[in-house]
UniProtKB/TrEMBL annotation, chains A, B, C, D, E, F, G:
Organism of derivation: Owenweeksia hongkongensis (strain DSM 17368 / CIP 108786 / JCM 12287 / NRRL B-23963 / UST20020801)
Superkingdom in the source lineage: Bacteria
Name of protein: Co-chaperonin GroES
Purpose: Together with the chaperonin GroEL, plays an essential role in assisting protein folding. The GroEL-GroES system forms a nano-cage that allows encapsulation of the non-native substrate proteins and provides a physical environment optimized to promote and accelerate protein folding. GroES binds to the apical surface of the GroEL ring, thereby capping the opening of the GroEL channel.
Principal location listed in the UniProt entry: cytoplasm
Amino acid sequence: MAEINLRPLADRVLVEPSAAETKTASGIIIPDTAQEKPQQGKVVAVGNGKVDEPMTVKVGDTVLYGKYGGTEIKHNGVDYLIMREADIFAVIG
Amino acid sequence: MAEINLRPLADRVLVEPSAAETKTASGIIIPDTAQEKPQQGKVVAVGNGKVDEPMTVKVGDTVLYGKYGGTEIKHNGVDYLIMREADIFAVIG
Amino acid sequence: MAEINLRPLADRVLVEPSAAETKTASGIIIPDTAQEKPQQGKVVAVGNGKVDEPMTVKVGDTVLYGKYGGTEIKHNGVDYLIMREADIFAVIG
Amino acid sequence: MAEINLRPLADRVLVEPSAAETKTASGIIIPDTAQEKPQQGKVVAVGNGKVDEPMTVKVGDTVLYGKYGGTEIKHNGVDYLIMREADIFAVIG
Amino acid sequence: MAEINLRPLADRVLVEPSAAETKTASGIIIPDTAQEKPQQGKVVAVGNGKVDEPMTVKVGDTVLYGKYGGTEIKHNGVDYLIMREADIFAVIG
Amino acid sequence: MAEINLRPLADRVLVEPSAAETKTASGIIIPDTAQEKPQQGKVVAVGNGKVDEPMTVKVGDTVLYGKYGGTEIKHNGVDYLIMREADIFAVIG
Amino acid sequence: MAEINLRPLADRVLVEPSAAETKTASGIIIPDTAQEKPQQGKVVAVGNGKVDEPMTVKVGDTVLYGKYGGTEIKHNGVDYLIMREADIFAVIG
């Protein structure tokens, strides 16, 4: 994964969503009946955090996040999501 | 209960809901007429808390939480809920 | 009153509601025309409070609280309410 | 006025409303056209305040408060109102 | 202007509205087309302020305030308004 | 511009709107299609700010502000707007 | 890019939107199906920030921001947007 030339501001995180989301390599299956289906992706870039709130996730982390969090952007042909760290539920692995 | 490879962020808690919820081993019966029926489960993973707000629950605690708190995820064939600690009412035992 | 094996989290309080609520032993009569009729009960368990907000009520206190505060739970055959301390109006006696 | 066995919590105040509210001894007349008619009463018990917010009113103060503030309770045959200090407009005298 | 026996609480201010409000002695004319017509009056009593927020207006100040701020009360035959200092726009003179 | 006898409270600013608002001397043209058309005016009086929030604009500054910010008042035959500093977008020049 | 005579207040940023927004020089393509399409522009002027919140973006930065953030203004024949720094998602490059 090459360095990306996008620097998220404040508590924002740039995430590259995983291709297959119904059954992933780490074994998470997203149930159909979930109210808010969590999504999985890889952290590509991380902001510097807010005053007194340092960031927790790091570039390379695989994260779970809510379905409706973040804004889609396409950069050099790749789809990304940019979201606030508070929209991330957990780090996998 | 094996170690799980999911690390909740901030004040989030990963809970494995108890199988039988109308009558549990510890004797709690969920009344039918309750406005918001509390649910019971076991804490599987705990975040590091927020700035100046350390976490109270520990892995292994049995907890009561609201019916509509948390997001369902399935991991290695097991159903979990991920919620904020503020959605947990009490620890049993 | 035996020790109960439920530990409320943060600023939550476990209350056992009084049986007779229209006329109690201490002489409080709940008027019919009140917009929000206060209820009376005994504190059974108390959380550790929040950061910089210690708890005021103690186990054994008789308290007045709002009609719509708290969540009902049944434990070992007894009905309880779990509520935040801010939902409690006053301590009697 | 005998000591009352009700201790309001935090920033709450127990008030005994004045009997005659259209024309009082201190000469306040509540106008008919007021959007929110202030009420008058005597402070009977006062909470300990919140963190960093000590209480201002004292037992025995005559106070003006909004019509819709507070919750009615009846204790030993007397009608009281329990309200937050922020619902009190002014002290008379 | 005699001393008044009403002590506003916290950040509240007691104001005696000016009699003529379309054309005053200091020359302010309230336009008909204003969305929220400011009113003018004299400060009669001032609270002690809130923690870390001392009061700015003084007894005797002529103030401009919003039309819908404050609660009307009548005391010894005089109409007053009681409002929060934040409802006052400016001091005249 | 003579001294004005109005002292805005806290973070409020008294502004004299510019006469011509579609094309001004400094060359700003307000587009017709803007969702919220900014307005331009001259600062006439400034409050002392709030605790820990000193004021930025000064008397004499030309400012841009939102169309729906502020309250209209007329003083000695001149139309003014009184608004909070947070309603001001930028200083021109 | 000449110096501009507009000084944004507090945490506001003046941005000159990029001309072509469906395909830019740096290769970002805005997808049609995005809920909120991010826009791209160049920072022209930056406020001094708020108390304890210094600014992150600098004049000359190329930024991504939400479609509905900011207010349009036209100055010396150029269209600008004025927005809060919190409305900016990321800096490019």
